[in-house]
Specification:
- The complex is a heterodimer.
- Chain A is built from five helices and 48 strands.
- Chain A is mostly beta strands.
- Chain A has a 22-stranded antiparallel barrel.
- The chains are: A mainly beta, B mainly beta.
- At the A-B interface, helix 1, strand 18, strand 21, strand 25 and strand 48 of A face helix 1, strand 1, strand 18 and strand 20 of B.
C-alpha cells in the first residue's frame, strides 16, 4: 500500500465523521431527482384554499421558516412535476422533483454561443446524461461508450483504450473537460480509461468537425465532458463505492459548499483494478502466491487516484438570469499500471516487471457568462501537464529482489499545453448573434525518440462565427478560422450550418464543415535510427484535412404522455493528406501526407418516452474507402452495421429503475497500413454487448444501490485480424474485446447537512 | 436513517474496500536444480558492438574485437583464397562489369549483395570478379558509413595485393597484405582519408570454437533483404556443430553424438535460439533447441541457450550452458 493510499483513506474517514449531523433546518433545497441539479422553484402557500404567501428560490434554496405546519404547500418548477404537500412539523432539507418526461429539452453548450436547447442548436448534438452513467455503472469513458453508435473502441494492454468516431481514428477526436482539451496522446490517442466520469453532469458528443471553435483534432468530432456545478448553499456531498467481479474496487467522495458567494467543491477518487487473466473466474480474489507464470495478467492491474478542487463565483450582480461566472479548477490524476512479466524460459526465475506511471495535472480558469445586456464572454485559460514514465526492473524471482534495468528499458514521455481561448458574443437581437474569438495553444513534447528530446509548437488562431435566424424558421451559422502555426502551415477553416424548422415538430439540419488535424510532434520529429531501423519524423508535414457534410432530420412527436424523437442523420467525410508512415527511400521510413479516405454513413436514433418508460434505440451503417497511394484505385469496404437498444423503466413509487444496454457491432472490415508500406485487409467478427442493471434509492434518496451484469453474453475474444504497428508485425488472429461476464454493485450515499 | 448509521455504513464499506483493494505481495519461487553443466555469459553490449571469440575446452574468452574495426577479411588457407565482408555491420559488395576501376564513380546501376550467413565459399559476395564497389554498412549509431572501391590485383595464400579508392577516385592506394597461416583471416579497414589499417581481429585459429557477433541473415520475402541478426557462429577451421531435434538435452551422450553428421556451415547454431516477442517487447529463449558441437580438439559438447540479457536486463548477452560428453 503506498503512502498516497493511506492518506487518501484517512481523508475519507475523517470527512465522514465530520459530515453527518443533520440539524434541523428551515432552508429547503430543491433538486432534480434525475441528476441532482439544484432547481429554480416557486413555492405557493395556501391556508383554507387561499393563497397566503409566495416564495422564490435563491440558488435552489427556499426559506421555509415562515410556513406553519398544516398549511398546504405547492412547489412549481419549469419542466418538473408539481409537488403538493401539507407542511409537516419538521421538513427535510432536500426535496427532489421529478422531471416531466415530455416538454423537456436538454441544454447544450459545446460549440454554441450560449446555452441552447438541443432542439434549437444548429448542430446535431448527442447527450449522455448522468442518469445513464449511473444506470450503466460506467466507471470511465471506455465503459460508457460501449453503448454508443458510431463509436468503435479498441484496447491495448499498455496504452489503454482508444476510440474511433464515424470510422475515423481517435487522433481526430477532440476530448474536452468543460472546454479544456485533454492532452497526453500516446501514439495519437488519449487513454479513455483515464477519464473519470463520476462527477459528470453530462457528456455532449458532436459528430463532424468543430474545428472553427476548437482547432486541431476536432475533425471527426468533439466530446465535451461537462462536470457537475453544484448550486447548493448547504454542505453536501456524495460517497460512492463500486465493486465489479473482475476485481474492480472504486471509491469516491465529493463535497461541496458555499462560502459567501463562492461555491467550492472538492472530490477525491481511488480506482483499483487487480488485473485479469482469461482463466480467472468472476469473484476471483487475489491471494498472496508464488511468483509463477500466473503473475502476468492480460489486463494489467491498475490504480488510479483522482483529486479535484473547483471554485466558482458569480462576478457581476446584473439582473440577468445568466450571470457572469468565474471558475477556477485544479485536477490531479495519478495512475500506476503494474505489468508483472512472464517468468522467462527456461528456469522461470527471472522476469521483467514494468511500471507505467501517469501523472496529469490540469488547471484552468474560465470566465463564462453575460457581461452586459448585449455582450457575453466565454474565456477558458488552462495549463495541462501530462507525464508518463515507464520503469522496468529485472526481478529475481527466487529472492523477489528487483534491480532497475538498463537505461534503454526506461522511457518517459511528457507533454504540456498552455491554452487561452476567449470569445466575445454580441447578441444583437434574438435573431442575430456574432462571436469573435481567439485561440492560442502552445504545446511541448518530450520523449526518448523525439529529435533533440524536446520540441514545441505554438498555434495562434482567430475565429468568427455568426448565427442568424430568418422568419423564425431558418437559422444559418457560418464560421471561419485562420491561424498561424510555428511549425506547419495551417489551413483556413470554414464551416456553415443550416437549420430549417419545417413545422413545429420537424427540423432539417444541413452542414458543411472543414476539419483538420495538426501533425503531431511525434510525426514531425520522431527519430529512431539503428542498424535495422531508420524512421525519422518529417518537419515538412502539412495538416490532415477533411470536408464533412451532414444532413439530419429530427422529428419530435408528442401525444398525451408520450414523446417520440426520431433523428435521421447522413454523413460524408472526405479526408485528404492523411499522415502515413511510409518507405521514402530504400532504407528510410518517414511520415508523409499520403493517403486519402472517405467515410460515409447513416444513423437512425429514436427516443421514446412514456411515463417511466424510456427507450433509446438506433441503427447505423458506415463504410470507408481508402486510397493509400495516389496511383491506386480506392479500396472500398463493405458497409458495416451497428444496432443499439437501450430501454429503461422507472417505477417512481419504489424509486427503482431497470435498464438494458444492448449494442450489436457488425463485422468490421478494415485495411491496415503496415509500417513497411504494405496494406493488408483485416476483418473483425461481429459481437453483441449486453448489460442489464437495476438501481434503487432508499431513505429519501440518501442511499442508492445499483446492481447489474455487464457483458452478459460473456464476450472475451473474437476472431479478427489486427495489424500491429511495428515494422515487423504480422496480424494476430483474435481481438480482445472484454473480460467476459462480470457482476457489479455500487452504493451511493448522498450527504446533505446544514453548515 | 440517522447520522450515525450513515457514518457507520460509509465507514464499513470503505474499510472492506481497503482490505480487498491492494496489490498482493508474491512469494519467491524455489531455485531450480541445475545439473552438471557449465554456464557462460558473453557480453556483446546492448548495441552489439563487440565480437567475442570463445573456447569450449578451456571455457575462456579467446579474444574480442570491436565490430566496426574491419571491413574485409582475406582467407589465409584453402585451395582458393577468398575475401569476406564484415557482415556485422551489413556490408554489401557489387561486382563492376564493363567498367574499369577508374571508370566506376557511382553506386548506381550496381547490384549489391550481402555476405551469406553460412560462410560457404560458393555463396560469397566477392567472388570471381576483380573490381568491386563496397558498401561499408552502418556504424554503432546506425549511420551509414559510405562506399569505397577495390580492384584485386593479385591474390594468393601468401598475400593479397589490391587497389582501393573513394568513389570519386581520391585517396587511392595500392596495398599488399601479407598472410599468416596461423589465422583463418587477416583483416583490413578502409580509411576515408588515410592509409588502410591492418587490425588484428581474430585470435589464432586453433584457440577458439565459437564467435558471438552480429551478422547478416538474408530474407527473400517480399524481396532480397539482408537483415542484421545476433548469434553464434562456429570456427570453420576445425569446429563443427549440429542442431539436434530428436533427443532431449539430458539424453544426449557421447555415443549418440559420435554418430551424428555435423555441419561445416558456420551458422549451424545461428541466431534463432531466440525470438523477439513484439507484444511483450522481449526476447524469448528457445531452450528446447539443443546443439552438439565438436571442438577443434575433437571433444563433443552439448549446448543450449538460457538467456540473452545481462544482470540489469540489457540485451546482448547470450548466455548458454554446455557439458562435455
Amino acid at each position: 500500500m503506498t503512502k498516497n493510499n493511506i492518506l487518501y483513506r484517512l481523508f475519507l474517514v475523517i470527512s465522514c465523521v465530520y459530515l453527518s449531523p443533520i440539524l434541523y433546518s428551515q432552508q429547503v433545497e430543491f433538486k432534480s431527482s434525475e441528476d441532482s441539479v439544484a432547481l429554480r422553484v416557486s413555492v405557493y402557500v395556501f391556508e383554507n384554499d387561499k393563497k397566503i404567501n409566495e416564495l422564490k428560490s435563491v440558488n435552489g434554496n427556499v426559506d421555509f421558516s415562515t410556513i406553519k405546519s398544516g398549511q398546504l404547500v405547492e412547489v412549481l418548477a419549469t419542466g418538473y412535476e408539481q409537488k403538493t404537500f401539507t407542511m409537516p412539523e419538521t421538513i427535510t432539507p432536500v426535496i427532489y422533483l421529478h422531471k416531466i418526461a415530455t416538454r423537456f429539452d436538454e441544454m447544450v453548450v459545446t460549440g454554441q454561443m450560449q446555452q441552447t436547447s438541443i432542439s434549437d442548436a444548429v448542430q446535431n448534438v448527442r447527450i449522455i446524461n448522468s442518469k445513464k452513467i449511473e444506470q450503466m455503472g460506467a466507471q470511465n469513458l471506455t465503459q460508457l461508450f460501449k453503448n454508443e453508435l458510431n463509436i468503435q473502441l479498441s484496447t491495448d494492454a499498455i496504452l489503454g483504450s482508444g476510440m474511433s468516431l464515424q470510422g475515423i481514428s481517435g487522433e481526430n477526436v477532440k476530448i474536452l473537460v468543460d472546454g479544456v482539451p485533454i492532452i497526453g496522446r500516446l501514439n495519437g490517442t488519449v487513454d479513455l480509461d483515464q477519464i473519470n466520469i463520476q462527477n459528470v453532469e453530462k457528456i455532449e458528443i458532436i459528430e463532424g468537425p468543430l474545428s472553427v471553435n476548437y482547432g486541431s483534432d476536432a475533425l471527426a468530432g468533439t466530446i465535451n465532458i461537462i462536470t457537475k456545478k453544484n448550486q447548493s448553499n448547504l454542505l453536501s456531498g456524495k460517497a460512492y463505492a463500486y465493486y465489479e467481479s473482475n476485481g474492480t474496487y472504486n471509491t469516491q467522495l465529493n463535497l461541496s459548499t458555499k462560502f459567501k458567494h463562492t461555491q467550492i467543491s472538492a472530490d477525491i477518487n481511488r480506482n483499483y483494478f487487480d488485473g485479469w487473466r482469461p482463466d480467472e473466474k468472476p469473484f476471483h480474489f487475489e491471494q498472496v502466491r508464488v511468483a509463477d507464470s500466473l503473475r502476468n495478467k492480460l489486463y494489467k492491474p491498475r490504480e488510479q487516484i483522482f483529486g479535484g478542487l473547483k471554485a466558482r463565483q458569480r462576478i457581476n450582480n446584473s439582473s440577468h438570469a445568466e450571470g457572469l461566472y468565474l471558475t477556477a479548477d485544479i485536477r490531479l490524476f495519478q495512475e500506476e499500471i503494474e505489468n508483472r512479466g512472464i517468468p522467462s524460459k527456461p528456469y522461470y526465475i527471472k522476469a521483467f516487471d514494468d511500471y507505467y506511471n501517469t501523472l496529469r495535472w490540469d488547471n484552468s480558469i474560465s470566465v463564462i457568462g453575460r457581461m452586459t445586456k448585449k455582450w457575453s464572454v466565454n474565456s477558458t485559460n488552462s495549463y495541462n501537464f501530462f507525464e508518463r514514465k515507464k520503469t522496468t526492473y529485472v526481478n529475481d524471482l527466487t529472492t523477489l529482489e528487483q534491480t532497475i534495468a538498463g537505461a534503454n528499458e526506461q522511457d518517459t514521455s511528457a507533454f504540456d499545453l498552455f491554452l487561452s481561448r476567449t470569445s466575445f458574443i454580441y447578441n444583437h437581437s434574438k435573431n442575430w448573434m456574432l462571436e469573435v474569438g481567439y485561440d492560442v495553444n502552445y504545446e511541448s513534447s518530450r520523449g526518448k525518440r523525439i529529435e533533440h528530446q524536446t520540441k514545441a509548437m505554438g498555434d495562434y488562431a482567430v475565429y468568427v462565427t455568426s448565427e442568424y435566424t430568418a422568419w423564425n424558421k431558418l437559422t444559418i451559422k457560418p464560421g471561419l478560422r485562420a491561424a498561424y502555426n510555428s511549425v506547419y502551415k495551417t489551413p483556413v477553416i470554414p464551416s456553415v450550418f443550416f437549420k430549417y424548422k419545417v413545422s413545429k415538430n420537424n427540423d432539417i439540419r444541413l452542414s458543411y464543415s472543414r476539419g483538420y488535424r495538426a501533425p503531431s510532434l511525434k510525426e514531425l520529429y520522431f527519430l529512431f535510427v539503428d542498424i535495422n531501423h531508420d524512421i525519422k519524423g518529417n518537419p515538412e508535414l502539412e495538416a490532415e484535412t477533411s470536408n464533412n457534410y451532414q444532413l439530419s432530420l429530427r422529428t419530435d412527436y408528442e401525444k398525451g404522455k408520450c414523446r417520440l424523437v426520431i433523428t435521421n442523420q447522413f454523413f460524408f467525410n472526405d479526408l485528404a493528406n492523411l499522415i502515413t508512415l511510409a518507405q521514402v527511400t530504400n532504407t528510410e521510413y518517414s511520415y508523409v501526407n499520403l493517403s486519402k479516405a472517405q467515410t460515409y454513413g447513416y444513423t437512425l436514433n429514436t427516443n421514446f418516452i412514456r411515463k417511466g418508460l424510456s427507450v433509446d434505440a438506433g441503427v447505423s451503417v458506415k463504410g470507408r474507402k481508402t486510397q493509400v497511394y495516389a496511383n491506386e484505385s480506392p479500396r472500398a469496404t463493405s458497409f458495416y452495421p451497428e444496432v443499439k437498444v437501450n430501454p429503461s423503466y422507472t417505477i417512481d413509487k419504489i424509486n427503482t429503475s431497470f435498464a438494458v444496454f444492448y449494442k450489436f457491432t457488425g463485422k468490421l472490415p478494415n485495411f491496415v497500413m503496415q509500417n513497411d508500406g504494405t496494406v493488408f485487409e483485416s476483418k473483425r467478427d461481429a459481437f453483441h454487448m449486453l448489460d442489464i442493471t437495476a438501481s434503487s434509492f432508499f431513505w429519501k434518496r440518501k442511499i442508492g444501490i445499483t446492481l447489474g451484469v455487464k457483458n452478459l453474453l460473456g464476450v472475451t475474444t473474437i476472431n479478427g485480424l489486427s495489424g500491429g504497428d511495428g515494422a515487423h508485425s504480422a496480424g494476430s488472429s483474435s481481438v480482445q474485446i472484454g473480460m467476459g461476464r462480470t457482476y457489479f454493485c455500487s452504493l451511493t450515499v448522498n450527504l446533505n447537512t446544514k453548515k | 436513517m440517522n447520522g450515525i448509521t450513515n457514518k457507520l455504513l460509509v465507514f464499513f464499506i470503505l474499510s472492506g474496500f481497503a482490505v480487498a483493494s491492494c496489490r498482493k505481495k508474491e512469494l519467491p519461487v524455489t531455485p531450480p536444480a541445475i545439473g552438471d553443466v557449465t554456464t557462460t555469459a558473453i557480453e556483446l553490449s546492448p548495441s552489439y558492438q563487440k565480437i567475442a571469440y570463445f573456447d569450449l575446452g578451456t571455457n575462456t574468452n579467446a579474444g574480442e574485437a570491436v565490430k566496426t574495426n574491419w571491413d574485409l577479411g582475406f582467407s589465409c588457407a584453402g585451395e582458393t583464397p577468398y575475401i569476406i565482408l564484415n557482415a556485422a555491420k551489413i556490408m554489401l559488395a557489387a561486382p563492376v562489369t564493363g567498367k574499369t576501376f577508374e571508370q566506376v564513380t557511382s553506386t548506381s546501376n550496381l547490384s549489391f549483395k550481402a555476405e551469406h550467413p553460412t560462410g560457404r565459399m560458393d555463396s560469397l559476395a566477392i567472388r570471381g570478379g576483380s573490381v568491386y564497389v563496397l558498401d561499408r554498412g552502418y556504424d554503432n549509431s546506425g549511420t551509414h558509413m559510405g562506399h569505397f572501391k577495390m580492384e584485386i590485383l593479385e591474390h594468393t595464400n601468401l598475400h593479397f595485393k589490391g587497389r582501393f579508392a573513394k568513389m570519386d577516385g581520391s585517396n587511392e592506394q595500392t596495398v599488399t597484405i601479407e598472410k599468416d597461416n596461423n589465422y583463418n583471416f587477416v583483416y583490413m579497414k578502409w580509411n576515408e582519408s588515410g592509409a588502410v589499417n591492418i587490425p588484428v581481429i581474430e585470435p589464432l585459429k586453433d584457440t577458439w570454437d565459437l564467435v558471438f557477433t552480429q551478422y547478416s541473415e538474408i530474407f527473400h520475402e517480399p524481396e532480397y533483404m539482408p537483415y542484421s541478426v545476433v548469434g553464434c557462429l562456429t570456427n570453420t577451421y576445425n569446429t563443427t556443430a549440429l542442431r539436434v531435434t530428436d533427443k532431449a538435452f539430458e539424453d544426449i551422450n557421447l555415443e549418440y553424438a559420435e554418430n551424428l553428421v555435423l555441419s561445416n556451415d558456420r551458422d549451424e547454431i545461428g541466431y534463432d535460439w531466440k525470438t523477439f516477442l513484439y507484444d511483450q517487447n522481449i526476447y524469448q529463449i528457445h531452450y528446447e533447441k539443443v546443439y552438439v558441437v565438436k571442438d577443434s580438439e575433437g571433444y563433443f559438447y552439448k549446448l543450449r541457450f538460457i538467456d540473452f540479457y545481462n544482470q540489469i536486463g540489457e540485451k546482448g548477452t547470450p548466455t548458454f550452458e554446455y557439458q562435455r560428453l
